[in-house]
Specification:
Layout lengths: L14 E4 L6 E2 L13 E3 L3 E6 L5 E7 L4 E2 L7 E4 L3 E6 L6 E6 L3 E6 L14 E4 L5 E6 L6 E6 L4 E5 L4 E6 L7 E6 L6 E5 L3 E6 L4 E7 L9 E4 L5 E6 L5 E6 L9 E4 L7 E6 L4 E6 L4 E7 L6 E8 L6 E4 L11 E8 L3 E8 L15 E2 L7 H5 L8 E2 L5 E2 L26 E2 L10 H50 L1
């Protein structure tokens, strides 16, 4: 019996391609702070990049279409008094972004719909509660206005941004610096990686550790841990011999890993980016010049190596586009924004397909921007999975609500511009059509039917053409004979 050598996978031939130079963002002074953050955050409307700034901390917010050279006087978001360490776009409002800084504060900003025209120094709300620098900020995946922050004071705070209050303090759980924090798919659990070499699964509302693993990776260098869609945990770290490793764990029993793989001996921390729709993990090492990607399945060895995208220049950071911001017509399954020393370069990951039809297997329903819960519901114990949308016909976003903070002594002197409806991707439930749209629909339908009938007649007459011609010839020939007689 012959064994199948090559494992069948629709992602086996995924290839990466950097865009042309005129589609990059040039002349950007990318931050030089020594912190293992991605330094970049992307959504379907903007790309945000942490930059070097004198006299405090700042980051750029650029509309995706504003490529080319960025002017040195281009306005920035510059409210922090210390360098910005991490930024994260709100998954439920493409105009809202949070930032954490060395000045021990978290700030939430509402970006004007068309981007910045003047420098922005006044946030919607300032969240103060950490005693040391804030290195991690992360929005809740399904609940509106719930934000997590982790600082070098070894504590995690979960905020209700709508009221500006710290609702949950997770203290005395981490004796050392927290390297990474990841929400589960529905946001009911947290997964953290700490400098004490432990990976912990935490129930934040009950303030208890569900399970933990000591020395998940024995090396002393930073680890990363993320939740997968099925509840398992994926980690990256270093072995005792300083070899880079990846591992897969069951979240309810972390005694032994499902699998462990060693990669190479580079020093760069591996930043994992995970696509829950396709179960593909992309590993981007800081200081590397490559992106490795793996498919996670239920078959051994469970984490299957797919391929590597390599360039000449090393990366200082990386941004990852949400699924609803991709071009489905080009079979694009991922897009990265690679930070160089002086520019940001988009990299497109594509599955080669000959058909022009929508590829259902590549684009299952994905998490949309509508929250499943309000903040108050989540804090009292309610859970909800992400509300899924279809990418088949393109996504049409609903009107984004302004972020309003109900809190005394919060600067609300200038309301942020309202977001208008911008076509980006289409939900399952289409909006109620207007009279004009119904007329257009009927007209398009009749036109399509007439076109189908015409095509059918063309094909029909094309098949009967020779027979009709022969019949005409016989008719003419018979008529001539009758006339002669």
């Amino acid at each position: 019996m012959l064994r199948r050598v090559v494992r069948q996978s629709k992602f086996r031939h995924v290839f990466g391609q950097a865009v042309r130079n005129d589609q990059c963002y040039d002349d950007i002074r990318v931050s030089r702070v020594t912190w293992d953050s991605s330094f970049c955050a992307v959504n379907p409307r903007f790309v945000a990049i942490i930059i070097d700034a004198s006299g405090g901390g700042a980051f750029l917010v650029l509309p995706l279409q504003k490529t080319g050279r960025i002017d040195k006087v281009y306005p920035t978001v510059c409210g922090h008094t210390g360098p910005v360490l991490d930024i994260d776009w709100c998954p439920h409002n493409d105009l809202v972004i949070a930032s954490g800084s060395e000045d021990c504060t978290v700030m939430v900003w509402q970006i004007p719909e068309n981007g910045l025209e003047t420098p922005m120094s006044v946030p919607v709300v300032v969240l103060e509660g950490h005693s040391k620098r804030v290195g991690i900020v992360s929005w809740h995946p399904t609940a509106r206005n719930v934000l997590l922050s982790a600082g070098c004071d070894n504590q995690i705070i979960i905020w209700n941004v709508g009221t500006g209050q710290a609702m949950i303090h997770l203290e005395d759980m981490h004796p050392d610096v927290i390297f990474s924090v990841s929400w589960s798919r529905n946001g009911s659990l947290l997964c953290t990686a700490c400098k004490d070499k432990k990976v912990r699964v935490i129930d934040p509302r009950k303030k208890k550790i569900v399970t933990e693993k000591d020395k998940a990776h024995e090396g002393a260098r930073p680890m990363r841990a993320i939740f997968l869609a099925d509840g398992n945990i994926f980690t990256t770290g270093f072995s005792r011999m300083s070899e880079r490793q990846l591992a897969l764990w069951k979240s309810d029993n972390m005694d032994e890993p499902i699998c462990v793989q060693e990669m190479d001996t580079s020093n760069g921390v591996l930043l994992p980016f995970y696509d829950p729709d396709t179960n593909v993990v992309y590993l981007c090492g800081k200081g590397d010049s490559s992106i490795r990607y793996f498919e996670i399945t239920d078959e051994a060895p469970f984490v299957h190596y797919l391929s590597t995208f390599s360039t000449k220049e090393p990366q200082r950071g990386m941004g990852y586009m949400p699924k609803r911001g991709l071009d489905v017509n080009k079979c694009e399954i991922a897009r990265f924004y690679k930070l160089h020393e002086r520019k940001c370069e988009p990299i497109i990951m594509t599955v080669p397909r000959k058909s022009d039809l929508f590829q259902d297997d590549l684009y299952p329903d994905t998490a949309g921007p509508d929250p499943a819960l309000e903040a108050e519901e989540w804090f009292v114990g309610k859970n909800g999975g992400p509300i899924l949308v279809s990418l088949k016909d393109g996504y049409v976003s609903t009107k984004s609500r302004d972020l309003k903070v109900v809190k005394t002594n919060v600067l609300e002197s200038k309301p942020a511009p309202k977001a208008e409806t911008i076509p980006t991707v289409q939900k399952h439930t289409a909006p109620q059509p207007s009279i004009v749209s119904v007329g257009d629909f009927i007209f398009d339908y009749i036109e399509k039917k007439l076109d189908d009938i015409y095509q059918s007649l063309v094909y029909f007459t094309a098949d009967l053409g020779p027979i009709i011609i022969r019949f005409i010839r016989l008719f003419i020939f018979g008529s001539v004979i009758v006339i002669v007689i």
